Amino acid sequence: MPERREYFYVGGEYAVDEKGNHLFHNQMYVEKLSPESGATQAFPLVFFHGGAQSGTPDGTPGWAQFFVAQGYECYISDQPSRGRSPWTPGKGDFLIYPAEHVQARFSATERQQLWPQASLHTQWPGSGLMGDPYFDAYYASCVPYRSSATDQETTTQSAAAALLDRIGKPVILVGHSQGGIMAWLVADARPGLVRTIVSIEPSGPPFSTAVFSSSPERAYGLTNAPLVYDPPVTDPARDLIKKRLGGSPDGMEVNYFIQAEDPAPRQLINLKNIPVLLVTGEASYHAVYDWCTVKFLEQAGVQVRHVELAKEGIKGNGHMMFLERNSDEIANLLHKSLKDLT
User: Fold this and answer.
1) Catalytic position from the list 177, 208, 284, 337
2) Kindly report the CA angle at 169 between 322 and 331, in degrees rounded to 5?
3) What is the pLDDT of residue 246?
4) In whole angstroms, what is the distance from residue 78 CA to residue 29 CA?
5) What is the DSSP code (8-state) at residue 303?
6) 3-state secondary structure 152-178
7) Residue 151's closest CA among 223, 44, 99, 96?
8) Exposed/middle/buried for residue 210 (C-beta within 10 Å: 0-12, 13-18, 19+)
9) For residues 66 and 79, what is the distance between their CA atoms, to the nearest angstrom?
10) Above 80 in pLDDT, residue 234?
11) What is the C-alpha separation between 32 and 91, in angstroms, rounded?
């Protein structure tokens, strides 16, 4: 379907540098794709990319084009200080994924098998290694990202809230990986403007890293930046009482944290009326722990459906499922699921 493409910036503010000059920072680049003949779906889609990624297309039709063809307006953002959203020198450190990181965790996981499900990975086009044309084209699009997760989250929350204000009607948030965190935060800030959240393997599990390390992370359970709870949380280390869940004997699921039952789990009051689809690929490292994120959401009063692709007959996908051979099959499943919810 032919599409119209527009772009603009939202959010941001002026700040004074060390020389007394004013600079504009923390703005967010947005592309809007619309069906040429007008949208036929009631709720636009707003996409949030993951870490070291941006909304830059690789030249081939992707999920945005798929959903435009189904009649949706689509908004594709580059998080502040990422991709086409300008960064200000001196505003913290930046990191980038080495190619080896991408190969081991995303594109050629079956070769290193760093988690039990990694051997099931079959859908990445090509070898998934440096020198392969598809891998090189993807890796060339990876961009530096801010080392401070909290700073990235707060600036994105603010700019994305401005985007929802500009759209002015309820939307469907689609967040992948780190972008899943952004979806929680934006919905928390603008619950009346979010119809549904599609969370594609959101950063997790609650309160900790997993698989590659086990250090404390995401003090507010789902996020590093504050979320609104009932009763309120002023000190997450004190107020959010944790309980360790047991994993499976075969190691296919790890043991990590949710809230304890006593005192009663605090509720995510701004998210409780927003249905969530949480999607997990069969071969991804998220298959080890996304179940724990689902438990945490349920415990906090959120309506969540866990879409495990393998149980839907969609096999072999890793964390970057939207880049893989069967990505349209996954997009079609999401489209049908959204019709049921909206």
Assistant:
1) 177
2) 15
3) 77
4) 5
5) -
6) HHHHHHHHHHHHHHHHCCCEEEEEECH
7) 223
8) buried
9) 22
10) yes
11) 28
